[in-house]
Amino acid sequence: MLTTSDDGRHTAQTTLGSTCTPALSRTLVLLFSFACGLSVANIYLAQPLLDAMAVEFHVSQASIGLVVSVTQIGYALGLLLIVPLGDLLDRRQLIVSQLLMSVVALLGVALAPTFGVMLGAVFVVGLVAVVIQVLVAFTATLAKPEERGGAVGKVTSGVVIGILLARCIAGALTDLGGWRLVYLVSAGATTILSTALWKMLPSGANLERPQSYRRLLSSLVTLWLKEPLLRSKALLALFTFAAFSVLWTALVLPLSSPPLSFSHRAIGLVGLVGLAGAAAASQAGHWADRGWQQWTYGLALVLLLFSWLLIGNLHRSLSALVIGIVLLDLAVQAIHVTNQSVLFRQLPGARSRLVALYMTFYSIGSGTGAVASTWAYARSGWAGVSALGAGLSACALAFWVLTRRGDHDTSQNAHHHQIQFTEIDV
């Protein structure tokens, strides 16, 4: 149940074999959304700054993508080692601890004397940025069943806005005081956020039953092997987020080079057109609550593939680029929220571990797309980047067509025979 302590903070109390009573207010949804937005911004701050970093550290364009990839590697490890703790520990303490570690890592990036030191710091930034997924899983736990998709969508919309504002604000701050200023400002903002969350977040571990950290991690293997729906959604996420990362990692390179020669501020403003993805995130969650998942997948994947036809015309039409960015962000976020809504409904007893496994493939896709995009740009320019993105999008569409029947059967079976937490605990 939910009680209120003397300091006014809500506390989610759990008993053995029960889950937390839904207690997700609009204020808490907004706070979660803002926290996710700021946390994800820390991951994507580097994307519009890659050219400036390359110049300062004397690194080639083909190698500077390592900044994004190392961040994503840290993120992937955090998903497997930290996010599952949301099923074991007090989530309030877990979230705030991650944010304080993020402050230290951001300061490390800002003060890094060498490229190697900076790579080490951005690795830690990625490692603790998985606080986003702890928040998303907590949202699904606290929300009412009939409102879960919409709540997850609203919180995820904060992630979309954070990604896009990160590019815009990072560009403006870089023009003002250099790329290091970006990380100093982010460290200050994250410090303020950690204080607010400590005061307002519900407290409670939401355990089904006590278990050790070792058993918690072991159950990840069991969960992965037993759940075909999890495997298919995770692989779909890998393809779609690889395509997403291909665009946003490489886009700064042609925009900052002749003949366009955009400033960092202008490049950040280009990224703002993707704010439409926030609307898609929220709406897709409501569609999932109504059972319209397959329609959402089909439409989103077709739009994702079509968007590359427009994005490929960057040097001929900036208007086509802008429309393509809007379509791509709409599609990717709709797929992402629908994936999470479907999975959270099937396995309510292991949401933190579920999101850990799913987001691991998201991270693999993002990291792979980052490295591949800078390599493709170095070899074949923007045409190579566009071909790579279109190819990944086509793979995502083909994979969905081949697996959608099996996913439907699995979902129907789960509706009648919902898998309980005790079946995946080892």
Main CATH class? Mainly Alpha
Based on the coordinates given, report the CATH architecture: Up-down Bundle
CATH superfamily: MFS general substrate transporter like domains
Question: Structurally, how many domains make up the residues?
Answer: 1
Overall mean pLDDT stands at 81
Number of strands: 2
> How much helix is in the residues?
over 70%
Largest sheet, spatial ordering of strands: 1-2
Count of DSSP H/I helices: 18
H/E element string?
EEHHHHHHHHHHHHHHHHHH
Write structural notes for this entry:
By secondary structure, this protein is mainly alpha-helical. It has one domain (24-203, 224-419): MFS general substrate transporter like domains (Growth Hormone, Chain: A, Up-down Bundle). Helix content is 77%, strand content 1%. The chain has 18 helices and two strands. A two-stranded antiparallel sheet has the order 1-2. Strand 1 and strand 2 form a beta hairpin. Helix 1 packs across helix 8 (148-177).
Brief summary of the model shown:
It contains 18 helices and two strands.
Can you tag this structure with a few keywords?
426 residues; mainly alpha; Growth Hormone, Chain: A; two-stranded antiparallel sheet; 18 helices; 2 strands; disordered C terminus
Chain-wise SSE layout:
Elements lengths: L1 E3 L5 E3 L13 H19 L5 H8 L3 H4 L1 H16 L9 H20 L4 H14 L2 H12 L5 H30 L1 H22 L12 H14 L1 H23 L1 H5 L7 H8 L4 H14 L3 H19 L6 H29 L4 H66 L4 H4 L2
Antiparallel strand pairs: 1-2
Helix pairs in contact: 1-7, 1-8, 1-9, 4-6, 4-17, 5-6, 5-7, 5-9, 7-8, 7-17, 8-9, 8-13, 8-14, 8-16, 11-16, 11-17, 14-16, 15-16, 15-17, 16-17
